Amino acid sequence: MKELNEVNTEQEEVINKELIYKYLSRWYWFIFFGVLGMGIGYKMDVFIQPEYEIRSSLIPRENSGEMTNLFSIDMLRSRANIQNHIEILKSNYLNHKALENLDWKVFWYKRNLFITEDLYQSAPFKITLYDDFLNLRNIPIKITAVSEKEYQLSVDKEAFVNGKKELIQFEQKNRFGNPFRNRFFHFIVERVPGQKDDPESEYFFSFKDLDQLTMVYQTKLDIYLVNAEADLIRLNIRGNQPAREASFLNELCNVYIRYDLQKKNQVSENTIQFINFQLQGLVDSLQMSGRSYTNFRSRNRIVDLSQEGGLVVQRLEELESEESIAKMRFEYYQNLIKYVGDAKQMEKVITPSVVGITDPTLNGLVTRLTELYTRRNTLSYSAKETFPGLISINNEITQTMQMLNENLKNLINNVKIELQNILDRKSEINTQLSRLPKTEQDYINVKREFDINNELYTFMLEKRAEAAITRASNVSDIQILDRARVERAIQIGPKTTRDALVGLILGLLIPITIITSVYYFSTTITKTEEVEKQVDNSIVGKIYHSQEKLGLPVLTDPQSAISESFRQLRTNLMYMLYDEKQKVIAVHSSIPKEGKSFVAGNLALIFSLNKTKVLLVDADLRKPSLKTFFDDEKSDKGLCTFLIGKNIFKTIVHKGPTENLDIVFAGPVPPNPSELLGNQKFEKFLEQAKQQYDVIIIDNAPMFVVTDGTIIGSKADINLFIIRMGYSNKEQLNVIKQTEKQGLIKRLVYVLNDVKESSLETYKQYGGKYGYYHNDESKSLFEKLTKLFK
User: How far apart are CA 646 and CA 287, in angstroms?
Assistant: First the structure.
């Protein structure tokens, strides 16, 4: 298990080193994409419209309570619930009301090369709408000023009309100031005095749906407490047009202040309405009782009551006044207990002090329940039932209702006892009244009725005056601390430094992603280990990559690493050709451009330099390429002309660049290469070649493209397959092995071409100037490099 972990760790290290090498070898990719990404990030303001943040702040004061000069609610008065303020400010109702007041029915835009600009309060045109016509919403309408008096409108957009999707497409001219009308739009376009349109820019406008716009602004709006210890509420909004966002924030604050003041004045309004309704009946009763009182005194010439009668009247009037107020309280309690669960009715309920109720607990509970219903109603416009704030308010309402119901039951029982006590006392006084003379009794009744109506009328007038004073003196509990101002707008995007850094990072990620993806998902052969695992150690040579232009490096640069790799290949093949009868080496490739002709030519040269008589044969009769390496000028004679019987063997053999190398070129391209190579003439060619040469190297056509290579491979002693690193496909190895299993070719070995090794490894393997330590200077340099890399 430990050994397995060590193997896995080593494999991971190899993979990491290979990836790093690939990254380093493509360093110019990183520079290019990094600079490109950084440049794009730096110039983001050209492609993206600037975004601004606008701020405003509110401070809720302690709730002063309603009708504070009529009753006290000190027991339940508490600090304002800040969270409720925040949720109400976010509510659909207030945001919708603010946008409605701003009257943003039309939005104007100017489109430049990359940016679309919101022309808030700066559009060169204006729209006048007809209230009886509903224009289609959110449809961009392009406008072009044709002249000072004419304009052209064009639309090309799909939209839903009466529930059906329809293509709206038209282009129409009209005069400024004249009505424009079709079945989708009806309005008047006019120029704005002092505003000039830019002929290089494109202008368009659209009609906005207020409900959708409300949802947009609810999403953009951010409201929060500045800190946990302060009651300061901060309102933030982001947008591309700071003037528009500032207008919205300020109007939202104004709407909330009016909303708060309206709710505070609601109690006073309800009180005044109730008193006015009561006074309508009292005025008539007072007038009738006044006339009756005056007429009675005139008829009976009574100036005043006797001392005993006066005392009786005084006591009776006091009791009846108490009875009237007690009955009014009793009726109020009964109505209130019916309205407790009805939010709409609770909004209309007058304060208890109006009917003479000074109980502080009842006043506080009624005020609290009314306030909770109002808050719930406001939040319900935008919040769902599962919203925590709404759940909290519902729980508070339930608790307040329970407390109020218990309190009302006790008060109703108390007022019943009070009324019964008043009736008992009135009965005693009426007994005393019955002992007075008849005229005096009648006078007492008339006077008593007049006095009661007069007292009630005076009482109601006083209460109405108090309610009016309260309404006039009410101020909102919300105070604007900082209004939104355009000059205080903060630009939050695009940020040049940040965007440039992000662009640099993203730019560097592009080559990393490409190189890594190619490394892990590429089907091409990139590592020698991939070949070694599948070919059972049948690799006889590695031809290293060279930065030089390839040709015949064995001849032009014999001291190079690539020349040394051919020497190594020659040594391995000579070991395999141990029998004098084994002379034919067929060089194959699966597909074109794997370097088989390059390997065949240089291999033939390296054999010839070892005083071995070599014949190099170009058997790719379809697309011969050896002539490009050896500058053939006699291509009219070659293997093809021999196979068709036109030339004999010695006439097609050409002298190579070295003493021991001869070459047979392909000759002219025949129409039937496979048939020519498969007949007995080719076998005769090989027999003659074996008699005169020690080694015969045959350059074949790509095996996967045509069958020519398979025909020659069956006659070869060694079949040398070229695998080009970074080019050949992994699947090719399976096909080659399958060909060997089928017996189509024999003695199959592999040469890895274009192998990329680190410079130090190649230097160590081949030494000094490569090849060997040919002088002391090279040996010294090699030792210095070895120490440096260590």
Answer: 149
